[in-house]
Amino acid sequence: MVKTTKKSRAKKAATSSSGKKIAKKSPAGNASKAKSADLKTKPTAVSVDAYIDKVANETRRKDARTALALMKKVTGLEPKMWGPSIIGFGEYHYQYESGREGDMCMTGFSPRGSATVFYVLGGVPEGDELFSRLGKFSMGKSCVYVKNFADIDLGVMEKIIRRSVAYMKKTYKTK
User: Domain residue spans in the chain?
Assistant: First the structure.
């Protein structure tokens, strides 16, 4: 018989059958531990322009310059790198019921290998008519994936970003 400790049982409980870590709720008294959980996406000192210059795909690099100008126009903010690949604008503070909390960019984008990803974190529901007018794209929970900017209406994308930013400012403490 293998003897388990309270700590090893807690560790096992925080892992799914596939071995992936799963979120667990922290007791209210442990909020300070939850607050200091290792946040992977943080602002960095990396130059946004230098990052864009290194984007290998020429179309993605050109689209990143267009997205950068669009985001600056909409937010009125200067960009910052968040983690290794997100170009973020503004910042908001979140806190989950578990007590975990942190800061993240209010909106942003990332020129990924197969698409440019726009992080629009709220304010525009999936069924909104703006998406029917946007053009060719795909969607995740809080992301819009665009393979080529020539396939979308940038005016509509601007409206989506504006609504998302307004929602974030209304809903969260933002900077």
Answer: 48-174
> Distance between CA 79 and CA 68 in Å, rounded?
8
pTM: 0.77
Around 125, how many Cα atoms within 13 Å sit in the side-chain half-sphere? 3
Give the number of other CB atoms < 10 A from CB of residue 24: 12
For residues 58 and 141, is the Cβ–Cβ distance under 8 A?
no
Encode 1-22: b = buried (16+ Cβ within 10 Å), e = exposed.
Answer: eeeeeeeeeeeeeeeeeeeeee
Domain spanning 48-174, CATH class: alpha beta
The length of the chain in residues reads 175
Helices (H), the chain: 6-13, 31-35, 48-53, 58-75, 129-134, 154-171
Q: Which residues contact 55 (CB under 8 A, 6 or more apart)?
A: 61, 64, 111
Tens of pLDDT, residues 94-149:
888 999 888 999 999 999 999 999 999 888 998 899 999 999 999 998 899 999 99
* Strands (E) located in 66-105: 79-82, 86-89, 92-95, 101-104
Helices (H), 76-112: none
Six-digit token string for 38: 């290792």
pLDDT one-digit tens code per residue, 42-68: 999 999 999 999 999 999 999 999 999
